[in-house]
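Hi support team,

I submitted a single chain yesterday and got back a structure, but I'm not sure I'm reading the token output correctly. Could someone confirm the output below corresponds to the sequence I sent? I've pasted both exactly as they appear in my results page.

Thanks,
R.
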Amino acid sequence: MSEQIQGNTIRLRREFVDFSGAAYDPTNATLKLYDTQKVQIGETITVGAGHKVATGVYEVEVTLPTGYDMIVYEFSGTDPRGKADVERKPMETPWAE
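Hi R., thanks for writing in. Yes, this is the structure output for that exact sequence:
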């Protein structure tokens, strides 16, 4: 991952695995960015074949928004059983010095 400074373009990665640890390709996969108040920043990104690195592994390039010292990114999709699979991670995004 590149430096997580506001305005930089970085690559976010998600590995979708089931409870046994087997990788799977989700349906309806998306990526969203949120501020610390749980308000979505920007548009929902549809994650698809163009982002696929390997079975269950997806990478999406995003430009980090300015004006937020901390964001939360959320990858979600539907697993083979039809259940939602959501993963959220916080990320510090300082201003460039």
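A quick pointer for reading it: The longest strand covers residues 70-78. Let us know if anything else looks off.

Best,
Support desk
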